[in-house]
Amino acid sequence: MEIKGKTAIVTGAARGIGRAIAEAFAGEGAKVVLADLGSLAHRPAVGWHYGLSPESELAGAAKKIRERGGSCAAVEVDVSDRASCQNLVEESLEAYSSLDIVVNNAGILRTGALADFAERDWDRIFAVNVKGIFLLSQAALPYMKERGGVIINIASVLGKQGYARIGAYCASKFAAISLTQSMAAELAEYDIRVNAICPGNVDTPMTFAHLASSEGLQKQYETATVEEAFDAFNRDRIPLGRGQTPEDMADAALYLSRADNVTGISLVVDGGYGIGVS
Ligand code: NAD
After folding, report:
1. Ligand 1 lined by 61 (C-beta under 6 Å)
2. Are the beta carbons of 107 and 12 closer than 8 angstroms?
């Protein structure tokens, strides 16, 4: 698919991986709908263990794209809510009269032993990381089925391999990968391609919030800062010896948007983390 002139919704676009993907699409001449919680981040039902993006960050991300000459709209959404996803699609169509690409990127992380893991946290992780993909894709389908399109789900290397003390998140990302495969099989007849990206260890607010948490690696590596813990982990565990960047994921999203004969894959971008250091 030629990206120029197409309309792309990117969820979780106010910061981190989503923001880099939105900037990359805008840089290629797409009309981008940046979707994130905005003022909804202040709702108790949405609140999380680390700060999610407030409205200032969403506005800032949109402003930067416009300053660079890109075309974008900013829409508040909670991807775990059906009406909110429906509203996002309607506002996107109102703004640009088309919808070609949906990037289901919004996600949340919580670590902890399963024996003590709070049911509310389990439910919220699945509501955002898995049901969010279902709800937004379903809302977009009536339009996309008529014209074809591209759906990209941001999963994780933790959707390929389970690890201790991060079971809920791993399970949600395994689910995101299998959902990607089912969607790809089901939607191919409408010329809708569905793929996943599996990032490794990316320097984003989510990663740094995790590193700094009581379960995080900063204690394990005994570093003064989370940035040092991030580097220490990458040197220790990643064959290429460095972490991934949001821009690495944006490159993968551009590739998957253009790759007209690719569907149902989960593209790992992890510097070899999954194969491990020898
Ligand atoms: P981040 O926390 O920096 O950004 C996530 C964005 O999603 C935030 O702006 C947040 O406000 C938004 N969001 C959260 N819940 C939402 C909801 N219900 N509705 C709408 N927006 C919501 O995280 P990130 O590291 O950029 O992660 C992006 C995606 O990449 C996630 O799906 C994450 O699981 C995945 N991922 C990240 C890494 C990593 O190392 N950072 C690795 C593998 C996978």
Report:
1. no
2. yes
